[in-house]
């Protein structure tokens, strides 16, 4: 089995004023919270956004595992739609002591490079900062953090930095190289 050297960058914001929003893209782009926990829809987003960049950790989750995750207090999924079609998503998770992690963020391949990503990230980060306004069971947000890696899209790290995130850790590890799973097997060629 061949391995792949993967660099992982951890980034954070520690105040809502850290956010530097991107411009709103032209056209009919809307960001809407997916309020009804739907394992089918969440798995679709995960597989469709991450299929060509080797997101594999959730592919084996059962329906029950997806449902359990989506129903956890402080987990939210925000979806960008371009003219009614899902274009990408950001998934938030409230953690201890007012910390919110951006667990997943990205666009379906057909929507990349159209200025939707910066807007969706800006919107998602703002929702991380005001999460307690919608979820009284979680503490007010004091920190928003995420990690991205060298397997993610080529503009991912730059997008996070432009939105006001600061780097706080970098690691490099060898991982087994896996084929890109696509939203279904064989959708993308490596």
Automatic annotation (TrEMBL):
SUPFAM superfamilies: Acyl-CoA N-acyltransferases (Nat). Residues 39-190 form the N-acetyltransferase domain. Gene3D superfamilies: 3.40.630.30. This is GNAT family N-acetyltransferase.
